[in-house]
Fold this sequence. Notes:
The protein is an alpha/beta fold.
Amino acid sequence: MDRRAILRLAVGIPFLGVGGLVRPGQAEHLVKPVAAGGAVRPPALRSPRLVMIDPGHGGKDPGAIGAGGTYEKDVTLDLAKELALQLRKTQGLSAGLTREDDHFLELGERVDVAREAKADLFLSLHADSAPNANARGLSAYTLSEKASDAFSQALADKENYADRLGLDLKHTKPVVADILMDLATRHTQAASLAARQGIVRGAGRDLRLLENPMRSANFVVLKAPDIPSVLVETGFLSNRQDEAVLRDPAQRRRIAGILARELATLLASPTFA
């Protein structure tokens, strides 16, 4: 067993193997199973990739409220349910939701749900109020300590009402924690950027995009170090045209179908192999 495997077993978090990120419980797949008599057993079939969908806001936190009275928490929940349905039904993927009804979850709890499920991708759905009322269209965000622009910083400031890092290393020696964080985050950051690019470029063939639609900021909900994470603004309820689209059930189904298509393509790519 190599040094990284020992570290993983010591604290129970993923490490980077030859083919990429290896999660707890998957280390055995790095060694071919051998049956009695020396025969090599065929490897077990891999479970469908799991997308954990996070409907933004909920419960006492309504999120943005459009001029027409549309609540962001309702839009994101309906979109998330439809996206999960289409991922399972038409794309053969597994999908979970951080919340399935109108209740409040702290940001750290949303991250914890995804990590406990060992999700392959975490997708947080939003339809916020933009700093500029003229801003409209889909955009995607990855984690960055320094925001790519003031617009993204303003969105992150609105979202970050709680601040919990998705990885508990408080009982780990500092030097070991540094190594583990580095191993986990290098792959996660690269995969998150690939996911952001794939979603925007693919969805942009069919949906209106925000100007400069690939952005980054310090969103707490994107801080799981071992799960590629992207926050998608499906539009802005502060814009009347976007609100009209997002409050239409048929349009929400359309958006969910487009996102499901792009997520299936993404999870079949070498980045997530």
